[in-house]
Every structure is written in structure tokens, then in C-alpha cells.
Amino acid sequence: MFKSLQIKKCLLLLALLAGVGTNAWADVVTITPSDGKAVESSDYSITKEPITVAVTTSTLTADQMRVFKNQSITISSTTATISKIEFTCTAEGTNKYGPGCLSGTGYEASTGKTGVWTGSSPSVTLKASTNQCRITEIVVTYSTSGGDTPAKVATPVINGDEVFINSTEVSITCGTEGATILYSLDDGTNWTNYSAPFAITETKTVKAKATKTGMDDSDVASKLFNMKMVLTVVRALGAIDLLEDNGTMTDEFVQGKISQIDSYNSSYKSITYWISDDGTTTNQLEVYSGKGLNGADFAAITDLKVGDEVIVFGTLKKYVDKNDNTIPEFTANSKIVKYTPSETPVPALTVSKTSLTGFTYVQGEGPSEEQSFEVTGTNLTGDVTLDLGEPSYYEISVSEGTGFATKLVLNKVEANPKTIYVRLKAGYEVSASYEGTITITSEGAAEKEVSLNGSVTAPAVPEDPNFTWNLTTNSYIDASETQVSWLSFFASMIADKDESGTKANNYLGGDANNRTSSRFYTGSKLTITPSKGYTITSVEFLATTTSYATALKQSSWTNANASVDGKTVTVTPKDGSAVFYAKIGGTTGVETVKYYISKDITIGTEGYTTYVAPANVKFPSGLTAYIVTNVGENSVTLTEVAAVPEDAAVILKGTGTFAVEVVGIDECDAVVENKLLPSFGTATTTDKQIVYALAKDNNDVVGFYKVKKDVCVPAGKCYIQVDASSSARNFLSFGEETTGIEAVKAITNDRFYDLQGRRVAQPTKGLYIVNGKKVIIK
Fold first, then answer.
1. 585: exposed, middle or buried (C-beta count within 10 Å: 0-12, 13-18, 19+)?
2. Tens digits of residue pLDDT in 758-769
3. Residue 589 in contact with residue 518, Cβ under 8 Å?
4. Mean pLDDT for the chain?
5. Is 70 exceeded by the pLDDT of residue 752?
6. Fewer Cβ atoms within 10 Å of its own Cβ: the N or the C terminal residue of the chain?
């Protein structure tokens, strides 16, 4: 016994002297994609003893281990403890495919192409939580146990098509070399030695385990293989019709003939096409952005032909678009599992776009800008006709800017492909929707249509008159070596070159793809003109440097004064409604120009209006401003304010025309409790909210009246909003703060309302609301 203890102590001493512990041996294994076998959109694993890499439902190529978004990668061992894992990816940081796309406890990603996990565990699982990750190499540092606990055989991996039509081949692998694999087809009651791949022809769960002498048995792997019947197109359409809007059916097979081909997506290498049972355009099913045989990419739209027979596998959907049109479809990334080309070429037409929207112009300024699409013909036997019908709001041409008509005929050779230009005709009144359809036909080919939608708008004042021109982008409307100009609804700014020929502006500093500033050169002239009816209260130039700001301030300003603070130059016009300009004293670089605009306020005989402050403004004598500080059951409380900050909503009381003054924020009253809201043209009553707008009835009773569901409060006006569940009435009167209570002895012909906002035909003694005021009948 004594000798045995001495021997153990000596061994321990030798181990310590050698710098190695007695419990573990450290080692490193490097795993690359080439260590495994290519897999498309399925579970896969790679084993390099004693480490196994397992990925859920993703793809393995010859040079990349891909982990799809929301899928996981597990690095594990049955005989070792992992202390470090280094991942090398195809992209950097948090970019798509980079190491930053993975997440998990103990994992950190660099800004480069490397991510590192550290810790101590026999199994580590990370998730591609933000985007797909593509890995080119995994280096695992591990230690092996020196104790007597037997190692465990690696869990087998079961391979095969989880969803199949008639049969699928099943293969099983194990990462432990020399292990015996057993499988069961009856939930583990009976086990059979696995020696070669086998076929299953019905829905079945396959289980597998592995054993090896001297090691613990592996865990049991399990995979369900689901046999599906192939639907006809008509049966698929019937099943889709029973779904809820935008409902789906996953893992379905549908057989049909290609009836029309819409478009090819070069970015995703997919084709959008339609199938039917007989190859006609009746009872069609759309295959949206579908992939080729077994999920392969398409190279061109000509990879498919009308009349080809296919079996498509993917997710069926009852798709409802924004116009409430129902389209039965296979969703994106379906794949063809069987392809039989048609024997006889069938004439076919395809269009690059099936709809064009957004045609528009301001009334009196038509026609609209042109849009275009391509029409392509294959196997054509006759000419191609494009017809808008008569009458039509639109016109088409094969040339930009000329030759427009409502009908075109293309020689069959021309349609390979041919660009068609479309525009909304000039001369129409204001309307939110001008619709049209281009019908495209050719002998023997399925008819194609391109839907059109546009509008004609009225000139409109923007909601907020204050605005900023960002001069580091192409925000100018015209530019040359002679002049650069900017234009908005409220003001224009023009930079002209000087008489000696020095260019006024180099458009924008920097190259065309990396703008840095606008340049106003020495001697050039900078002119600012307010639009009719508007006043410029001040202009702020943000220069690129303090020296540029000083040069701009020291330029010769006419009808304006300039001051400088750091890189900001503030120009205040002496007459804000008149033109003011400067002769530039020294070359200046400017990033932005911000304008503060005001306009006179006119109130008619009704005596009240609502107003959204375009800047920090102070109200003049004779014009009283209020905010709404409380909304009661049948009245509102008004609180007078003298000055308000930008974007504040107020009620104004007065008669005539008034000019507001722009002031500093420190002069403004606080409006944090204001219940009055600014409208952006969308405020209306709904099932959940009631909106009130300032108005008067036929007896000139001014107050807040309930807005109907289909009526919007105009942009720039103000409103009050309450929950529909409240007990608010159709009418809200002004409170005592602005009107007081008046006593009357006789009943007049005015309309009387009680304090709940209800009309009273025969008022008696008491408190009522008349013409927006509280009165007492004695």
C-alpha cells in the first residue's frame, strides 16, 4: 500500500514538472466546409474526432458552412470539454454573413471576420439571430478527460427528404469511427443494423442509435419523413380558397403546365410564372419568385417555356394585396421537383412589370413623367398589339418624349424585348385616381395586362413653412458653371458667377458620389427671394469651417444683416418680404441653409381660427391666443398665452390681419399641458377616437364640433381628440376663462344648448350655452 502511494506521488510530481495537469490534455482541431458533404436547405453535420459541428435547416457548400437566419450551429463532443471556438466568416462584423450575425452566451465577434466563444462545456450552441452567417473555418480548442468515465458515441445523423411524393432514400451517418448504427421504423420496438441507404414509401418516423465497445451508447436520433400527395392546380386553388386572408399551407406539391411567364429577378435568380391544369390562363396558380429544379437558380427568363409541365414544392398562400385583390400563389423560393419540357413551342408574351403606379403632375403642368416596362415575345407567330382602349387617360410610345398614342403594333421581331414608355396625358382636373390598362396580345399567346394608376394634384402649401436645404446632396434644381439654383414653395436661392468669369459654384464640393458642401466663390452673387405673401424672418447658413463662416458673414449683404456664431451664420433681412443678396467676399463652403418663414394671419368676422406656429412666435396686440388645458364632458378650458414655441397648436381670437413676431424660445410660454393637436391632414373620427374641430353652426355658435368618420381636419389646422368610450357630446363649448357668464332676462331667437351639449327648444331658468357663451336665464 505504501509503495502504491509513493508511485502515485511520483507520477503526480512528474506531471507537474512537465507543466501538464493530470486531468486533461489540451488539443486543437480545425474544421472546414470541405470536411463535409454538400447539403441544400437541410440539417447537416461535420465530424472531425472528437468534435462534431451540427447545423439546423441550412446549406453546406464546398467552401462555406451557411447558418440561415434564426437557425443554430452546435459544436459538441462526447469525449472532450471545449474551451475555445474561433469562427472565420466571409464578411466583417455585423454585416450580412459576418461573425456578428451569431449570438450566444460567451460569444463575442470582432469588427473583422472573426468571432470567438470561450468557456468550458462539452456542447456550445449559437444562433444566427440577426442575419445569415457564412463560415469558412472553425478552430476548436478542447481538452480530453483523463478519468475512467467511458466516452459516449456521437449521435447519428439521419438524412433524406423530410417531405416527399412517392418515396425517399434515407441514409444514416455517425461521427464516431467504427461505431455500429442501428435504426428502427416502429418507434424503437425493433432495431435493425444499418449497412446501406434504404427507401421508405409512406409517412414514417425513423429512429437511429449507435454503439461501440468500450463507449456509452449514443443518444437516439429521430426524424419524421412525411409523404404528400400531388395536388392538381384546381384542387390547390380550392384548398387556398378555404384559407383566411394571407393564410398559408406549407410543404405542398402541385402539378401543372406553365400557362404564362411574368418576369425574371436577376438579384434572386428566380422567375415569377403561372401554372394551370391544361396550360391555359383559366384557373391559374401563381408561382411567385420561384426557383428551378431542386432549388437551383435560374439563369434567364428563357429557362422556362409556356407549356412546360412541372411539379412545384413549397408554401401555398391566399395572398391579399393592398388593393384587396386575392391572388392564390406559391410564396417566394418554391422549387421545381419535376420538370418535363413541352414538345411543341407555344407563343408567349412576358412583361417586366404588371403594374405602373405613381404617375402624377400638378394641375395645369401635365403630362406626367414617363415610366417604362419591357414586353418580350417568344415563339411568336404574329405581331404584338398594345392597346389602351378609347377613351384613355394614358398614352404609350416606343420612344422617349415622342410618338405617343393609345395603340401600338410591334412586329413580332421587335418584341425581344421592346421598351414601352407610358405617361398620364395632360389637361386633367384634380383627382386622386386616374386608372388605365394596357392590353397586350399576339396570336396564340396568352393575353397580358399592365395596370396603370396616377393622380393630378392641386398646388398645396407644405404643412410646415420652415425648411432646410441640405447642400451636401443633389438638392439643387438647376446647376451649371454659370449658375446654381434651389427652389421651394416659400423661397428661392440662386448663386451666379461673377463678371470676371469665376464660376459661381462647383455644384457641390467633392465628387459626384461623395458630396461635402456647396461652394460660393469670391465675387459671386448669392440672391434669396421670398415667395409672394411670405416673409423670411431669418436664414441660418451652416458653414463647413469657422473661417468659411466668417467669410460669408463679412460678404457685402444688401437689405440684410449678418452675424456669426462658430460655423453658423445668421442673416436677418431688413424687409423680410423683399429680395436680399450678398456679394461673396471670400470663398465659402456651406453644408445646409435653414429658412424661418412667416405669413400674415387673417381672421374673418367669425372671430376665431386655429393656428400651428411655424416658429417660436409672439402674438401682437389685438390678437389673443389660447391653448386648451382641459377637455370636459361638454366644454373645454382655454388658457391665454402670449408667445408659443415652434409647432404649438393654438386658438386665435381677433378680427383682421396680423403679423406674428419670431422670438427666442426663452420668451415662449410652456404648452406641455396643451390638449389641442396640430393636424397633418389625417385626423378624423374612428371607432376608437373622437375628433373635434373648431367650427360654427348656422346660428354662428363657435365651438368644437365632432368630425365625421369620412371627414379629415385639414393640414395646418388643429383639433381635439378623446376616447370614443368617453361621454363626450357632439359639441364642446369654450369655458369661462375666455367668455365669462352673462345673465339674460328674455329668451331670444338664438339656439340654446344645455351643459351636455344638447339643443333645448324651450329653455327655462338655468345655465345654458348661447353663441358659444355661458348665460343664465333668470
1. middle
2. 566 566 656 666
3. yes
4. 83
5. no
6. N
C-alpha cell at 48: 472531425
Q: How far apart are CA 424 and CA 198, in angstroms?
A: 64
Report the distance separating Cα 708 and Cα 374, nearest Å. Answer: 45
Q: Are 178 and 153 in contact (CB under 8 A)?
A: no
CA-CA distance, 578 to 574, in Å (whole number)? Answer: 8
Q: CA-CA distance, 645 to 617, in Å (whole number)? A: 7
pTM: 0.32
DSSP string over 662-690: E--GGGSPP-TT---EE--S-----SSEE
Backbone phi, psi, residue 643, to 5° = -150, 145
Strand partners, 746: none
Return phi, psi of residue 534, to 5°: -115, 155
- Among 192, 198, 197, residue whose Cα is nearest residue 180: 192
Residue scoring higher pLDDT (753 or 17): 753
- Say what the pLDDT of residue 362 is: 81
Cα 345 to the center of its chain, rounded Å? 41
Task: Kindly state the average pLDDT of the residues 249-253.
Answer: 93
Nearest CA to 68 out of 93, 42, 31 is that of 42
Percentage with pLDDT > 90 across the chain: 44
CB of 775 closer than 8 Å to CB of 741 = yes
Q: Are 690 and 683 in contact (CB under 8 A)?
A: no
How far apart (Å, rounded) are the C-alpha atoms in residues 717 and 547? 43
User: In which band, very low, low, confident or very high, does the pLDDT at 651 lie, cut at 50, 70 and 90?
Assistant: very high
pLDDT for residue 502: 57
pLDDT tens-digit profile of 53-80? 999 999 999 899 999 999 999 999 888 8
Buried b (16+ CB within 10 A) or exposed e, 128-160: beebbbbbeebbbebbeeeeeeebbbbbbbbbb
For 105-120, the pLDDT digits (tens) are 889 988 889 999 988 8
List CB contacts of 349: < 8 A, sequence separation 6 or more.
Answer: 260, 375, 376, 377, 380, 384, 415, 440, 441, 442, 445, 446, 447, 448
In sequence order, the 6+-apart residues with CB closer than 8 A to the CB of 124 are 74, 75, 76, 82, 85, 104, 106, 117
What does the alpha-carbon distance between residue 6 and residue 383 come to, in Å, rounded to a whole number? 102
CA 405 to CA 250: how far, in whole Å?
46
